[in-house]
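User: Predict the structure for this protein chain, please.
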Amino acid sequence: MTDISLIPPSLDWLPFYADALERGWSPNTDQDVSREQLLQLRRDPERFLHDLYHSPMVRLADGQEVPRLPAHDYWISDGTFCGRIGFRFQPGTEELPLAVYGHIGYTIVPWKQRRGYATQALRMILPVCRSEGFSRVLITCDDDNDASRKVILANGGIPAGSVPHNRRPGHVKLAFWVPTTQD
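Assistant: Here is the predicted structure, written as structure tokens:
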């Protein structure tokens, strides 16, 4: 298995992120935002990067703007751009706003999938979660996303029910608690 690293998003790596968008990858697993992000990125790369990870507000799928949660965001690299992973949270509580499915979200570019990168990246971000005081984190995946379910289970995921999927009628998000300390 190839070793990966988690790197902070940066202007230096932005061309690789843009290349992934151009090749059809979307950092949002619920909707394709690649075209929208490419337009914003090409208009003003510095502002795009700032708004993506540091703006005080975020726009939900329904258009509503809400305060951004504190987060630790990383790009996944094996020497090239492989995807993203992020940990979002409310300090001092496991609770999350209704619009947020889970603490951790991740996605791997299609041409790097099935190499164990998501499993490694999740394992690597768990100490970051622990450093914020979390003994466990909630992670969800679509009910038909077997690959993501395997990633979560490989990291000690414990089934915790399901919630309705707000973008795919007839589907649910499966919920799992993942301990931040691996045995």
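The two ends are 20 Å apart (CA to CA).
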